[in-house]
Structure formats: structure tokens, C-alpha cells
Description:
27% of the residues lie in helices and 12% in strands. With 366 residues, the chain is an alpha/beta fold. It has a domain at 8-188 and 330-350: Vaccinia Virus protein VP39 (Rossmann fold), CATH 3.40.50.150. Bound molecules: S-adenosylmethionine (SAM). Residues 14-20, 35-38, 41, 57-59, 81, 83-84, 104, 328-330 line the site of S-adenosylmethionine (SAM).
Amino acid sequence: MAARPVTISAVDLFCGVGGLSHGLQDAGIHVVAGVDLDRACDYPYRTNIRAPFHRRDVRDITVDELAAMWPTKAVRVLAGCAPCQPFSSYRRGVDTSQEAQWPLVNEVRRLVEGTLPEIVTMENVPRIGSTSVFADFVERLRKLGYWVDFGSCYCPAYGVPQHRRRMVLVASLLGDIAVPKGAVAPADYVTVRQAIGGLPAVGNGETHPSDRLHKSRSLSELNLERIKRSKPGGTWEEWPEDLRASCHRRASGATFRNVYARMVWDEPSPTITTLAYNFGAGRFGHPEQDRAITLREAAILQSFPPGYEFVAPGVPAQFAPLGRLIGNAVPPRLASAVGDAIVGHVRAMKGAVRKATPSTTIPAAL
Length: 366
Ligand SMILES: C[S@@+](CC[C@H](N)C(=O)[O-])C[C@H]1O[C@@H](n2cnc3c(N)ncnc32)[C@H](O)[C@@H]1O
């Protein structure tokens, strides 16, 4: 008699709005719980992922509590994308080792040691790869018997319309496992035009009536003048002297080419940061409309589906908190490639896998 297909069940620590969970679900993995201390993640996580959301500090989650989140007999996945701020390249040269977020990777390690899930995955900024906290984590995984692979992934090669690099780690107790290679050739990278070119036009500082997130942050008179003078892919050097910002006038200004600038239609976008709605914080000007990109455009450039819900009805859609949730997310398409690699690996090691169909009911708040 053939062995029964196995189910793969994931708990997502530091789940945010569910970028990683969404991608794992797309791959057929059954996401059984998300944990994050940010209350703003509760509604989007439950609504889109349809899995319980535990608003908890990961440091307070006990081994027994985590173990109870997985169903019995499933192949268990633990995803732990700890906050990347201490490791971000924006912080290069700053000693961040005393910051409270630094040891959070060690919390993932504590929970791995206590539960020994068959599969572990983690995503973070590439710089984490050169830190001792990451080296210690990998060494510990190997000592616990895990096969481990990690590498820097260039998001356009995974179908994400965005120049973003991320470190992905996968580890398995079942056998050799590998970080997936990006399958998209440079000629086929998804462009800004393909991703957001079909969205309805929105004026500067306006919200489209059909979507509360298709909302652009109002530009000052000066910034409006600047964007009008900006060409897609161009820089402030094309502006008249009186429009230039003080950072441009300094000798170091030559390095600020990618602020107050427009995106290019036929390339992937720049990295979508937590400030992607702000024209002055990056190359976040729309390629042809005289405005910054909207929150919805930022989310789509992160490869979230166009209907992804980020905020509950009746709650105002505010730029700063939503920009943070969107910019901090793991791009779902990168996550789904990781999910495919996990499913392929489990199939090779254990035989048939029963793909999960996400629930249609939204779990109640815990
Ligand atoms: C990089 S984001 C995770 C993104 C998420 N995996 C996604 O794909 O959307 C890091 C998350 O960690 C959460 N966080 C930070 N410290 C935490 C802690 N001590 N316990 C639980 N969550 C924490 C933040 O609220 C944030 O949502």
C-alpha cells in the first residue's frame, strides 16, 4: 500500500503582514500560525493568510507553546525572519550589537533547539551573512543535525519586480536541501510597467476611490516642481540650481542620485523600503505621473497580489505604519520559490505531499 501523502505545516515567527506566509501558502504549505508583537499585523495576517495570529513577543513564546501550534504528524516548518534593522546596509559602520533586536535570531535558535522542526527557514538582509550571530546560528543548526544552505537571492530572478537582495537560509533534518536558484532570466525580469502600469491614475496627494491604498502622499510645491523636472531614471543634476536640495549642493551630493528621482518603466523598481511612499527618500517618483508611488504600488512592487488587505475597514490607511509593514515584508514571490524548494525537498525525502488549500474563513482574533 502506498504511503499516505504528508502535510507540511509552517509556523511563521515575526510574521508581519504575512509576505512570507503568503508565499509559502502559494507553494501549498499549510501555514498554521503567525507570531508578531505588532498589533497592526493582526488584521492583515488573519484576513489574507486565514491563520491564527498570536500577538506575542517571540522572546516569551515557550517551546511547549510553539510545539502545540503544529498539528501532529505534519512535517513541521519553522520560519523565523527576525527584524533586519540591526543588519541593514543603511547601518553599515554603526555598532548595532547592543540593540534589543540583535539577539532575536538567538530566539529562533532557542525555539529550534526546543522543538527540532524538520525544516527551518529564515530571510534577512545579505549583511547578516557576515555577522557572528548568523555564523553561530548556522553552526548550531549543523550540530543539531541539520543540513543547511544559505545564499543571497536577487529578487528579480524570482519574479519580483524589484531590485532587492535578500539572504535566504533553509535547513532540514530530512536530508540535503538547497536555497532555490532564481529561474527568471534578465530579459524576462518583471518591470515596473508590467507590475503597476495598469493601475488607474491618481493625482498628487489623492486616493483612488476604488482602493484606499492607492493613495499618494502629497508633495510640497517645491517637490512638485522637482518631480515635474525629473525624467524616469534621471537625477537631480538635470534640475535648475534653485530646485536642488542642500544635500545635492554638498560635495557628497553626487552620491545622492537615487533620492528625489523617478522610477523607470521598463526595469524592476528600486528596493521598496519602509519609506517608499516618500519622493525624497529614494527613487520613489512614479515614472510618468507627477507624484510619489502609492502604498498599493509599493505593495505590488513587493509582489503582493493587488487585492491584499493591509488595514481593517474604518481604520485610516496611514503612510508611516503601512509603509513600514509593506517595506519590511518578505516579497511573496521570493517566499513562494522558497516554499516550492521545501515542498520539492520533502517530496524527495518522504514521498507524496498533500498540498494545502488555504481556509476560506478568517480566524477570530486571539
Ligand atoms: C522583517 S519583519 C517580518 C516580515 C514578515 N516575515 C513578512 O514577510 O511580512 C520583522 C517583524 O518582526 C516583528 N518583531 C520585532 N520584534 C519582535 C519580537 N520581539 N517578537 C515578535 N515580533 C517582533 C516586527 O513587528 C516585524 O513585523
